[in-house]
Amino acid sequence: MVADVVADAVVIGAGHNGLAAAVELASRGWKVVVAEAKDTAGGAVSTRELTLPGFRHDVCAMNLSSFAGSAFHARHKDALARHGLAFAPAQHCFASVFRDQSYLGVSADLETTLQRIRAVSEKDALAWQAMLDDFQRKAPHLFGVLGSPMPSWGLAKSAWRSWRELGKEGVAELLQLLLATPRDFLDRHFESESLKAMMAAWGLHVDFTPDTAGGALFPYLESMANQAFGMVIGKGGADVIIHAMTGLLRELGGELLLNAAAQRIEQENGRASVVVLADGRTLRARKAVIANLNPQLVFGRLVDAQSVPAKYQQKVDEFRPGLGTMMIHLALDSLPDWKAGPELQGFSYVHLAPDLAMMSRVYAEAAAGLLPAEPVLVVGQPTAVDRGRAPQGRHVLWVQVRVLPAQVRGDALGRIPAADWAQVKQDYAQRVLDVLEGYAPGLRAKILASHVMSPQDLEQFNPCLIGGDNLSGSHHLDQNFFFRPVTGYSRYNTPIKGLYLCGASTWPGAGTGAGSGFMLATLLAG
Question: Considering only CA atoms, which of 34, 464, 49 is closest in space to residue 259?
C-alpha cells in the first residue's frame, strides 16, 4: 500500500495527551503526524464563545495547575511560552459554601487560609499547618508515583527513594493515603465538619464519594497543592495550552491534520502500521500508532476484532465509565452576589457541596439513574482571575454539575419525568439555577445568555466522554494504578504490536497534566 503520509508515529486524536506525545517524540527527532476528527485540536481542553460574542467559555477543563506543574511543561516550558502559553494565577483558589451561608476557602497566602480555619477550629488550623509541612516532605514521592509508568524501573526507583527518605512509617502513611476513603482520612486529621466538606468536595471531581476506597488522594493533593503552589487557569482560556502545543509541534516538523477522522487501523505482519481516514487518505506509521482515545473507541471499532484476543476485548468492554456530568455556561453582567460574602467573588472555584451526607446522597441517586434532588455544583469564576475572557465589566460563569446518570430513569424529587437527556436537560438546568439562587440571590437576573450541555451532549462533543463521564473511565481502585485501563496493559501498550493508548483512560488518569502522553513518548523514544 502506498500511503499518502509516512511518519515514524501516527497519533489519532489531538487531545492534550496526544499532543504531548507528539511534541515529545518530535523533539527527539521522530517524524510525527496527528490526525484529529474535529475541526479544532484539544479534545476536552477547549475554549469557545458558547453564549455571546466575546464571552470565552472553557467547555470542560478549566484548572490548568496540573499542566503548569507537569514534567512535560518543565521540559518544554520556554518553547511553549514562545508559542503563547501563559497562565493566570488565582490569589484565592477554592472555597466551599455551607448551609448556614458561612464558607471556608483556600487562598495562596497561607495566613489568610489559617485565619479562616481558626474561626471554626484552632486545633484544625494547627492540623492544616502540620499537614502542609508534611506534604512538602511527601510531595516529591507522591508525584514520583504519579509521574512514573505502571509498572516501571522509574516507579521502583521512586519507591526505593521513598523508603530511604521517609522510612517504613512514612511509606506506610503514603500507602494508607492511596487506599483510604475521604471520610476516614479527614476524620483522622480534622474535627471541623466544614473543613472536611471543603476538602471532600474534590473527591466528586473524580468519581469518589466520601466513603469510596482510594478517594482520599485527590482531596488531599488538590487541597495541599493549592495551598503550597496556588492554582492557575489559562490566560484567555484553557485552550492556550493547545495552541502552544500545536505551534511547537509544527515548529518541530510535526503535522496536524484536522477534520481527519480515523476509520480503521490496519496491520501488516502482526503490527499496527496504517491508519485509514474516513476520507480515504492513509497514514503509515513506521514505529508506532498512538490512539489518544478511550479504549472502547479503538477496540471493536478501529481494529479488526479478529486480531484482538477475546479476553482483552472482554476487559475493554467491561471498562466502566464514571457517572455523568452536566456543564452550564453563563454570560453574566456581573459576578454572583454570594450570601456568604463579597470576598467569594474573588475565588476561582466555589463548591456547593455543603456536607458529606449530601455528597454521598447525590452519588447514590445518580448511580441509581435518578436526577439528584440537590446536585453538587462546582462553580468556576474564571473572569475573577482572568478578566480578558469577557467584555469589559461582564463575566462568564462555569458550572459543572457532579454527578449525574448517563440514562435518566427518574427524578429523586419526583418532579421531572424520566426521559432522554434532550428532553430533561433544560428542566434540570433550572434546578441547578435554583440551587445557585439559594447561595447567590438574584443570579438569574444577571444572566445575559446561557448554554447547557447534558451528559449526552458532552459525549457528542467528545466521544471519549462516554455517558458524559468527563474522566474517560472511573478512577475507582479496580480501574486505577496497575489496572488502568486493562490489567497487564498499564504501560500504554496493547495486544497489537505497535499500537499504544494514551489519554485519561490510561494511567495516571484524568486531568490536564499531560502525564500519559509524555510518559508514553518517553518510553517509546527512550
Answer: 34
DSSP one-letter string for 449-466:
EEEEE-HHHHHHH-TTSG
Convert 207-255 into a string of H (helix), E (strand) and C (coil): CCCCCCCCCCHHHHHHHHHHHHHCEEEECCCCCHHHHHHHHHHHHCCCE
Residue with cell 485519561: 504
List Cα–Cα distances, 357 to 249, 256, 401, 439, in angstroms: 47, 47, 17, 19
- Could you tell me the pTM of the whole model? 0.96
Residue 86, class by beta-carbon neighbours within 10 Å (0-12 exposed, 13-18 middle, 19+ buried)? middle
Angle CA 34–37–43, to nearest 5: 80
The share of the chain scoring above pLDDT 70, in percent, equals: 100
Closest to 366 measured CA to CA, from 309, 428, 278? 428
Q: What is the pLDDT of residue 3?
A: 77
Element (H, E) at 79: helix 71-82
Residue 457 confidence (pLDDT): 98
Going by the DSSP 8-state scheme, the letter that residue 493 receives in this structure is B
Stretch 356-376: mean pLDDT: 98
Contact between residue 429 and residue 326 where contact means Cβ atoms under 8 Å apart:
yes
Cell digits for 102? 458561612
* Residue of 231, 211, 233, 215 lying closest to 223 (CA atoms): 231
Contact call for residues 22 and 254 (beta carbons, < 8 A): yes
Q: What is d(CA 520, CA 526) in angstroms, rounded to the nearest whole number?
A: 10
**Dist. CA 518–CA 50, nearest whole Å:** 31
Mean pLDDT of the chain: 97
* Residue 397, pLDDT above cutoff 70: yes
As a whole number of angstroms, the distance between CA 205 and CA 61 comes to: 11
Stated length of the chain: 526
507: exposed, middle or buried (C-beta count within 10 Å: 0-12, 13-18, 19+)? buried
φ, ψ dihedrals at 389, nearest 5°: -85, -5
Taking only the tens place, the pLDDT of each residue in 80-135 is 999 999 999 999 999 999 999 999 999 999 999 999 999 999 999 999 999 999 99
- The enclosing H or E element of 129 equals helix 122-146
Question: Is 503 a residue whose pLDDT tops 80?
Answer: yes
| Cβ count near 317 (within 10 Å) | 11
Q: Which of 46, 45, 25, 36 is nearest to 511 (CA)?
A: 45
**342, 346, 267: which is closest to 302 by C-alpha?**
267
Q: Rounded to the nearest 5 degrees, what angle is found at the Cα of 13, between the Cα atoms of 381 and 26?
A: 100
> What residues form DSSP beta bridges with 90?
231
Q: How many CA atoms lie less than 13 Å away from 414 in the CB half-sphere?
A: 0
